[in-house]
Amino acid sequence: MPHLTSTKPGTASTDLRTGLGVPGFAHPLVAPAEWAELIRPGTPLHWAALDVADGPGSRPDPHCLAAAGRLRTAGVRVIGRLDSTYGARSFGELISEAHRYLDWYQVGGFLLDRCPTERTALPEIRRMVTTLRALRDDARIVLGHGTHPYPGYAEHADQLVTFSGPWSDYRWSQVAEWTADYPPDRFCHFVHGVPRGHLEEALRIARWQGAATIWFTDRTDRGGSTDPWAALPGYWDEIVSRIGTGVSE
After folding, report:
1. For residue 7, what are the contacts with CB-CB under 8 A and spacing of at least 6?
2. Residue ranges in the chain assigned as alpha helix (H)
């Protein structure tokens, strides 16, 4: 993951309410404790992404149906993960998957993961977002770029994931200047490999860069061989406590 490229710091906000966005746990049959933790009272969740089988799968999954239902009952917004593959997948294929997520799991929005970042790809993503909103007009749309995209993308989504990668990059990252034109609730950061002793520093970086939604974990991708988002961070209780009571300056 490359470093972010601007030299202008974001705007720090003393009243920023940080919350969690879950990139997508392992299947509920494999990670039942993870899914159960998300409905713990007081957990500061903005949304949780559901990824059944690299998408919604070919038929309703009873374990995912139950997990999504419990989260909805608890007031958690569940969004379906759609893999754009950086623009390589067809419009029709992704919209078909979105229909299945809505029909089977009653999702409240979508995470368009591995979203392209280039200006040339913006018209197709705009078309995609417009169609997704037509399927459910109150849908939360999160574009999972993983880095700062062309600024025009911010006009068409509820949130942009502008960082997704390791702590070794995040701790030296800088925010793109154009993000200062938008409130913090428009941006999300996913960071893996954050040591417990650096958790407070990571939270301060998110606040300084103006990202209201985060997911930090001490788990790593082991060089790309594992999914660092599949399970809870080892300091889950601590991060819930820190965020739930507000992050001190």
Report:
1. 174
2. 32-37, 62-73, 91-100, 122-135, 167-170, 199-209, 236-244
CA–CA distance, 187 with 15 (Å, rounded to integer): 16
Helix (H), strand (E) counts: the chain: 7, 8
pTM of the complete model: 0.91
Q: Are 46 and 213 in contact (CB under 8 A)?
A: yes
Residue pair 204/247 in contact by the 8 Å Cβ criterion: yes
Residue 15 burial by Cβ neighbours in a 10 Å radius (0-12, 13-18, 19+): exposed
Phi, psi dihedral angles at 100 (to 5 degrees): -65, -40
Between CA 201 and CA 208, with CA 202 as vertex, the angle to 5 degrees is 85
The pLDDT assigned to 15 comes to 47
Which tokens go with 137? 């007009």
Residues of the chain predicted below pLDDT 70: 1-16, 245-249
Question: What span, in angstroms and rounded, lies between the C-alpha atoms of 53 and 71?
Answer: 19
Instruction: Answer for the pair 211, 189: CB distance below 8 angstroms, yes or no.
Output: yes
